Amino acid sequence: MSRIGVFVCHCGENISRTVDVERVAKVAGEIPGVAYSCEYKYMCSDPGQNLLKKAVAEQKLDGVVVAACSPRMHEKTFRKAAAASGLNPYLCDMANIREHCSWVHEDREQATAKASDIVKLMVERVKKGKALAPITVPVTKRALIIGGGIAGIQAALDIADCGHQVLLVEREPSIGGHMAQLSETFPTLDCSQCIMTPKMVDVANHPNITLYTFAEVERVEGYIGNFSVTVRRRARSVDDEKCTGCGVCMTKCPKKKIPNDFDRGHGMRSAIYVPFPQAVPNTPVIDRENCTMFQSGKCGLCAKVCGPGAVDFEQEDRVTVEAVGAIVVATGFKLYSIDRKPEGSPIQGYGEFGYGTIPDVIDGMTFERLASASGPTGGKILRPSDGREPKQVVFIQCVGSRAREKGISYCSKVCCMYTAKHTMLYHHKVHDGQAYVFYMDARTPGKGYDEFWRRAVEEEEAVYIRGMVSRMYQRGEKIVVMGSDTLVGVQVEIEADLVVLATAVQAQEGADLLAQKLGISYDKYNFYSEAHAKLKPVECATAGIYLAGACQGPKDIPDTVSQASAAAAKVMTLFSKDQLERDPVVAKVNEKYCVGCLACKKVCPYGAVEEKETRDRQGNLVKVTAYVNPGVCGGCGTCQATCPSKSVELDGYTDEQIMAMIEAL
Amino acid sequence: MHAAKIEHDFEPKVIAFVCTWCTYAGADLAGTSRMQYPSNVRVLKFPCTGRIDPVFILRAFQKGADGVLVSGCHPGDCHYMAGNFHARRRFAAFRALLGFVGVDLQRLQFSWVSAAEGGKWVEVVTELTERVRAMGPMTEFKSLETEEQWSGALTTPELKEAFDSVG
Fold first, then answer.
1. Which residues in chain A (577-616) have CB-CB distances under 8 A to chain B?
2. In this structure, which topology does domain A587-663 adopt according to CATH?
3. Rounded to an integer, what distance in angstroms lies between the CA atom of residue B52 and that of residue B45?
4. Best mutation site among B14, B33, B66, B86 for testing chain A: the one with the most A CBs within 10 Å?
């Protein structure tokens, strides 16, 4: 007979408000095999854990059920406490009577009955449970960082400085990301490139960092400590070993009128190009779609002028498989496309703002490029249509953000601040100009942020109008902006020379596809989900994968850098040990019954099932059975449900345990 | 503030087999968001829907479940890459078999509920509970189970009464 202890938690009042915890403890005490039951106000607190430890020792318990919150919250806490008292941690389970019971039901009678049932199920499960020993696996002390924006750069530098190898993979031809595009940054107005480019150079020069640009992650296999990642480095058509970055090829390229993405299409580049002058690496890329050589087979000027002979039209994609122990995902964001409804997306565009049809309606990032000294106008604020200096500029906030009817209900967090910054930059460059801002709320939490916003309003003379814009149209050279001032209660009409839209921050293009490759979860906006919103903000639910920056949700630079360093710290914690203890929830084969059909091998997503040959003394093959490599097994249990002879079993979720739970219903 | 409690003459038993990564987390989210749903559901957690053996569903019906829910990650979102696809294929075949032996398939529900879909969890559970409630108790397998357990003949009224009370 088992001796199981049941500990019912009040969770302050969170559980006891709707569940009669005393009755649950009493009912639990009457379940056959339960030797001890009690209730306590906070089981997770120190005295609560001590109560558990003491009971295990005094009552000689051989299993523990803690009826409290979700196991996703505190299973580790209680398993640790159980282990400290000498009980095998895998004989400690949680009955979730908070998230699955007290918080979702109002009727005290029904909630109490349900809580008692949940406890009963878990008691049956623990009764049939087995003591399991953790599996140790070696850790590959090399990290993969996906994305070379400020988040990826910071994480890479931190991990590399700690002495570990880092592989940084960036999709674009240069690292730098969105931050490299910015002119100046709030709230200090320091030049983005001045603080960014030294870090980019550090990455390129760091002996511990391998940098793959113009590359993408194709496949991810393995598990924490032992990932195997397939990376495709797309053909640059320029040999990065030979190229010195002199740039002669770009000056000689006859195709020079290609809109540059980096300048949001307002600057021009050649077909062989680097996205911006400070690009790292400064090895150019040939844009094959626009290159005359690739399109018609005639030209090759760049190859002729290249001293070291680095241009290679025949270059092919290089695919390598890299072994890494941890992955930091720092893929960043994209900006809301306002001109049209993206195909297949539930999110709607803002046709009423005339973006794409009125040339002087631009988005915030374009304004950054106009204001940037390295931008297409050399830092002068000039209208795209006629190159004149705009004297009246209207800024519109929350374009896409906080608009449930358009499909995005969240706040993009950075727009209030960067719009305030834009008004300042504009005022500094065009002294006789006037900036107007249409806003819903000014949200400026953050160190020095509200002071910054107040400065824009009080000292830099930006006129803030609380209300939204209903319509915009071109009248002569002006754009008529019609909106309402809800504080005064009047309709406003402004004749603007330039309109800047503060567009929403959205998840990066293809974020969902990458998540599927990595096996991490994402929310309905395709932002990646952390393991716990408060207590595990940088870890993914998938062990060994960490998040940094705006791929998780809209973030400003200070938050992104902090999170990147936090993710790096997590990676370094993982790398501090040579061996890693893994959850022993893995499948095992009973060779006695296995008929060697290997159906399990076909369904195993990890390739953990191997064929094992049994031979007699003469070396004759007696039979072939399946064998599960515990280091590779992920513990999904698909093999067990597939096995026709029921000879493979997933520890922690055995048929016996599950059947016992069903029997207890 | 609270809606008046509706009295029902039949409280169905609903068993949910869920995966830990998506649906269990989705149900947790329903909890943290303080959404309300019928208390009839009992949740059994699995690492993956791929682990769920059709036998579990049969056994649940036999042990008195009036409705069974199987729920996991959306296609493509499986934590174990493909477990939910194996589950989907397995249950497509199993459903046909269950229908063949005479179980009303309205009692068996499959769904994808992600970790972000607390609201969908509430919807799915509420809908299944209310549907099963309207259908009444599931008796076919339950009596079979009782007969299995009861070896002797029901010769006296006392034995007959005891038998009925078990069923």
1. 585, 603, 605-606
2. Alpha-Beta Plaits (3.30.70)
3. 10
4. B86
* CATH code of residue B80: 3.40.50
Cβ neighbours of residue B57 under 8 Å, at least 6 residues apart? Answer: B17, B68, B70, B94, B98, B108
Average pLDDT over residues A229-257: 94
Token look-up 């922690």 returns A652
Q: From 3.30.428.10, 3.40.50.720, 3.40.1280.10, 3.50.50.60, which CATH number describes the A145-217+324-332+508-575 domain?
A: 3.50.50.60
Residue A341 has pLDDT above 70, yes or no: no
Is the domain defined by A4-127 classed in CATH 3.40.50? Answer: yes
pLDDT tens string A135-184:
888 899 999 999 999 999 999 999 999 999 999 999 999 999 999 999 99
Domain count, chain B: 1
Judging contacts by C-beta atoms under 8 Å, the chain B residues touching residue A515 are 77
Cα A501–Cα A505–Cα A506 angle in degrees, nearest 5: 130
What is d(CA B39, CA B57) in angstroms, rounded to the nearest whole number? Answer: 20
pLDDT at A630: 85
* pLDDT, tens digit (0-9, with 9 covering 90-100), for A540-553: 878 899 999 999 99
Residue A461 has pLDDT above 80, yes or no: yes
Chain B contact for A70, CB < 8 A? Answer: yes
Do B47 and A635 count as a contact with CB atoms less than 8 A apart? yes
Was domain A337-506 assigned CATH 3.20.20.70?
no
Q: What is the pLDDT of residue A344?
A: 56
Two tokens at A273? 């190009």
Domain ranges of chain A: 4-127, 145-217+324-332+508-575, 248-305, 337-506, 587-663
Shared fold status for A145-217+324-332+508-575 and A337-506: yes
Cα A256 from Cα A299, distance rounded (Å): 14
Task: Provide ipTM, 2 decimals.
Answer: 0.88
pLDDT tens, position by position, A348-391: 667 778 877 888 999 999 999 999 998 999 999 999 999 999 99
CA distance B74 to B77: 5
Q: In a mutagenesis test of the A interface, which of B29, B81, B89 is the best target, namely the one with the most A β-carbons within 10 Å?
A: B81
Chain-chain contact of B36 with A524 (C-beta, under 8 angstroms): no
Residue B1 has pLDDT above 50, yes or no: no
Residue B3 has pLDDT above 70, yes or no: no
